[in-house]
Amino acid sequence: MEKIIVVGANHAGTASINTMLDNYKNIDVTVFDANSNISFLGCGMALWIGKQIAGPEGLFYSDKEQLEAKGAKVYMNTKIDHIDYENKIVHATTFDGKQMESSYDKLILATGSLPIAPKIPGADLQNVQFVKLYQNAQEVIDKLELHPDIQDIAVVGAGYIGVELAEAFQRNGRKVRLIDVASSSLSSYYDPEFTKLMDENLSEHGIELHYGECVQAIKGTDKVESIQTDKGEYKAQMVILAVGFKPNNLLGDNHLKLFKNGAFLVDKTQKTSDDSVYAIGDCATVYDNAIQDTNYIALATNAVRSGIVAAHNVCGTHLESLGVQGSNGIHIYGLSMVSTGLSLQKAKDYGFDALATDYEDLQKPAFVTEDNQPVNIRIVYDKETRRILGAQMASMYDISMGIHMFSLAIQEKLTIDQLKLLDLFFLPHFNQPYNYITMAALTAK
Ligand SMILES: Cc1cc2nc3c(=O)[nH]c(=O)nc-3n(C[C@H](O)[C@H](O)[C@H](O)COP(=O)(O)OP(=O)(O)OC[C@H]3O[C@@H](n4cnc5c(N)ncnc54)[C@H](O)[C@@H]3O)c2cc1C
Ligand SMILES: NC(=O)c1ccc[n+]([C@@H]2O[C@H](COP(=O)([O-])OP(=O)(O)OC[C@H]3O[C@@H](n4cnc5c(N)ncnc54)[C@H](O)[C@@H]3O)[C@@H](O)[C@H]2O)c1
């Protein structure tokens, strides 16, 4: 019987464990997770802090008992300290401090990511918070409830987490300053024409934007009192650090080959440079269809799919990832923004001779006066090959489904010219006869 060990049982690990136990017999699956809980949907943290949901109950979709009911042996609060790759043995410290070891035939690493801790003086003061785990969210909620004097919140990092939490704290009745070293929010995912829509939206709701500012120090005695950047000093009784994640490769032990950012390098079956070891989720690389090369994109969606792929390969069924395009979305005070693949700026940074075609129009014909908002769309493509490289959409209307088509287009290497004549339905309840996707493609240079 094949002995399989999974290290990490959050989104990636849980997807691999469920796939193995739902589809294969005669396997022995042992799971180790250092945390006390699994499957926490981090995206729910902002909804919880912003009082848009009552509590955390619905933010978990699995637990130790569910995995054990399927036949897994699950050790929670148990950290793998070291892996002996030569003898295929993992060494762990259990919740009560005991040492244990377990051997494997195949190993799946799902150790995820770690928040980047910027080296800022004062980062160790009370009320400086990382926001990754359920425990982090509970701690923030408790502090906000117990300390109404925590009024000024400084959020460092205006990426996805920072923007979502800025809204959340503002909804929670606090004064929010959003600080980023970049010149806008979401600069890794959208071009300025789109980030300005988000930044106008944030400002209109009272969030004070401090972009192009570099945090120099967090000040206070034992608790945070202010935050200093190269442009000014601002009152703060709580600082949220949301400056990105780095892959958690601590168990690689210089044995597994790493990508330039430290993620475990994997092939399309999720196998690492060691034939008995697979890596999935935030600790591993992905194949990026937009750049047609290896990349690192930390998303729950990639974690789940890579878990599924690894599970089948570990259990003997050859399956390859289709690659990803980093599709993502955000919804802030009713403004939806979705993107996939590369922004124009990112495409140029990667060396593409990239062009973009933009279009803005109402979702539906003007004679429809109900629930009919303008939509902005940008499609990025390679000038020479005409291959679609990315797309961005923004609207107060729910345009989220539209981006999935562009995700498939990038995956299947569709060109902007093929898009011109793609069969898209028309019904005035939904869209326009000449809709913005067709028009953006038709007007492409
Ligand atoms: C606030 C927030 C909001 C987010 N919102 C979204 C969203 O809306 N959409 C989206 O796609 N993504 C979102 N993400 C990103 C998403 O949560 C991650 O991509 C996802 O968690 C990756 O899953 P993972 O299982 O690979 O890694 P992780 O979630 O990091 O889990 C790794 C697991 O491994 C365990 N582990 C690590 N080392 C060891 C060890 N040595 N021994 C034992 N166990 C170990 C940890 O305890 C943990 O349980 C969000 C993230 C955050 C923080
Ligand atoms: N809706 C979603 O899809 C969603 C939601 C939340 C998180 N996530 C994912 O989770 C991961 C982590 O999200 P995140 O928001 O932490 O990372 P991120 O990479 O999205 O944003 C990090 C931000 O911090 C800024 N920054 C970096 N160093 C800084 C410094 N020293 N001072 C000030 N600003 C600094 C960057 O310019 C960037 O805007 C990402 O992969 C993200 O895609 C996705």
Automatic annotation (TrEMBL):
Its cofactor is FAD. It catalyses: 2 NADH + O2 + 2 H(+) = 2 NAD(+) + 2 H2O. InterPro entries: FAD-bd_OxRdtase, FAD/NAD-bd_sf, FAD/NAD-binding_dom, FAD/NAD-linked_Rdtase_dimer_sf, NOXase, Pyr_nucl-diS_OxRdtase_dimer. Keywords: FAD, Flavoprotein, NAD, Oxidoreductase, Redox-active center. GO terms for molecular function: oxidoreductase activity. Belongs to the class-III pyridine nucleotide-disulfide oxidoreductase family. NCBIfam families: NOXase_Strep. This is NADH oxidase. It comes from Breznakia blatticola.
